[in-house]
Specification:
Elements lengths: L2 H49 L1 H11 L16 H20 L4
Helix pairs in contact: 1-3
């Protein structure tokens, strides 16, 4: 096999690998986008809960020991939902930059 043929085959292999990586990334992003849409709905509901009167009442009930100890209550942490809202916002900004072609 000559040099040209060797270079051609190497070029084809390299580009096949690129295509495979892009297809894998596309599949991951399609799945992630669907999950992100669903999570944004949940996030809106969490924000409404956190900024409304129910969160304050639930937090006070927990402070008074009225919530059983075996009940998961991460949503009642003072920073939990706020940090989650901030993290979503920061990631959405990063995605906007990525889509706009910014580094």
């Amino acid at each position: 096999m000559g040099k040209r043929e060797t270079e051609r085959l190497e070029r084809i292999r390299e580009n096949e690998e690129r295509m495979d990586r892009c297809l894998a990334a596309l599949s991951l992003m399609e799945t992630a986008c669907g999950e992100w849409r669903a999570a944004r709905e949940d996030l809106r509901a969490l924000e409404a809960y956190y900024t409304g009167p129910d969160w304050k009442r639930d937090y006070a009930a927990d402070e008074q020991g009225l919530i059983p100890p075996d009940v998961k209550r991460g949503v009642l942490s003072q920073d939990g939902i706020g940090d989650l809202l901030d993290a979503f916002s920061e990631l959405e900004e990063e995605l906007r930059k990525l889509l706009d072609g910014e580094p």
